[in-house]
Amino acid sequence: MNIEQIKLKFKSGNDIPVSRASLTADEFNFLLSRIAELEAQTQWRDIESAPKKELLLVCEENGDQYVASHHSSNWWCYGQSDDGEPMFCLPTHWMPLPPPPKSEDENKAG
Q1: Domain covering 46-96 in this structure, CATH number
Q2: At what angle do helices 25-41 and 3-11 cross, to 10 degrees?
Q3: pLDDT of residue 11
Q4: Are 47 and 58 in contact (CB under 8 A)?
Q5: What are phi and psi of 22, to 5 degrees?
Q6: Residue 60's pLDDT is what?
Q7: Cα(64)–Cα(80) distance, rounded to whole angstroms?
Q8: How high is the pLDDT of residue 2?
Q9: What is the residue extent of each domain of the chain?
Q10: Based on the number of CB atoms within 10 Å of its own CB, is 69 exposed (0-12), middle (13-18) or buried (19 or more)?
Q11: Phi and psi at residue 98, to the nearest 5°
Q12: Against a cut of 0.90, is the pTM above it?
């Protein structure tokens, strides 16, 4: 079964069993929205839409990927060479970095 089939089942007013419970249409729609939101966070976006003041994961046309910050025009800086010179790339796409891992205290709290 795919998402479109599930959507059609809900449009007909039927509940879909999930273990011993079933989802209401509101719960299901919330889950679909959340899935779409999470999927959007992991999709490559055109570099023209990239925020210029954030550290981002960027990808060049050849597939090379870097964590980089905007430098000027279309150039992004992703580090320094051994002699201290900045290294630049010309990415075509970007996506946000994931959040950092939680600390042990945060993991224990929930």
Answers
A1: 2.30.30
A2: 150
A3: 63
A4: yes
A5: -135, 155
A6: 97
A7: 17
A8: 56
A9: 3-41, 46-96
A10: middle
A11: -70, 160
A12: no
Radius of gyration of the chain (CA): 21
pLDDT at 13: 57
pLDDT in tens, 12-69: 555 555 454 577 788 788 888 888 888 888 899 999 999 999 999 999 999 999 999 9
Q: Which residues contact 29 (CB under 8 A, 6 or more apart)?
A: 10
**CA 41 – CA 57 distance, rounded (Å):** 12
- C-beta atoms surrounding 81 within 10 Å: 8
- Three-state secondary structure string covering the chain: CCHHHHHHHHHCCCCCEECCEECCHHHHHHHHHHHHHHHHHCCCEEHHHCCCCCCEEEECCCCCEEEEEEEECCEEEEEECCCCCEEEECCCEEEECCCCCCCHHHHHHC
Measuring CA to CA, which residue among 84, 50, 82 is closest to residue 67? Answer: 50
Q: What is the pLDDT of residue 41?
A: 82
- What integer pLDDT is reported at residue 77 of this predicted model? 97
